[in-house]
Amino acid sequence: MAQPRMNVALGDGSAVLSLLPGSGAEGSVTLTPGQLLELIGALGAARARLVGDLPPDAKERGLEATGVQAVVAPAWIVRPEALTEGSMLAFAHPAFGTVGFVLAAAEVRKMVSALTSHLGMVHSGEVGEARN
């Protein structure tokens, strides 16, 4: 297993990001929750540009292979999206802030079908109604 190259420690209302030996850099920076979220957003945008050149099949394989940080019962919103005639879905993720995406109408139909199928499965406990 590779050695970590950075460490994040929680301080008094802040996070301290320290670069460790082997990272190729040195130092640390203290970030407020807002600054940390801004950094996460900037890093996410940079990653999106880097992987934007991947072929679609590589992106799909990445979705299957990647561990998902699932959030239970997040706040969410669904709105119509005029440009694609589909829907915009957004939810609040405690680690990544508000995360949203737009699905075209055909993808919305697939998602509705999949979710309807899930509701028909036998679950332990009771299946609650969708909530926001």
What does the main sheet amount to? Answer: 3 strands, antiparallel
Estimate the helix proportion, in percent.
25-40%
Distance between the termini: 41 Å
**Low-confidence parts:** none
Helix tally equals 3
Question: Can you walk me through this structure?
Answer:
This protein is an alpha+beta fold. The chain has two domains: 7-67, no CATH class; 69-132. It contains three helices and six strands. The protein has helices at residues 33-51, 56-65, 105-120; strands at 6-10, 15-19, 27-31, 76-81, 86-93, 97-103. Strands 1-2-3 form a three-stranded antiparallel sheet. It has a three-stranded antiparallel sheet with strand order 4-5-6. A hairpin with a 4-residue loop joins strand 4 (76-81) and strand 5. The chain is elongated.
Question: Topology, please?
Answer:
Elements: E1 6-10, E2 15-19, E3 27-31, H1 33-51, H2 56-65, E4 76-81, E5 86-93, E6 97-103, H3 105-120
Antiparallel strand pairs: 1-2, 2-3, 4-5, 5-6
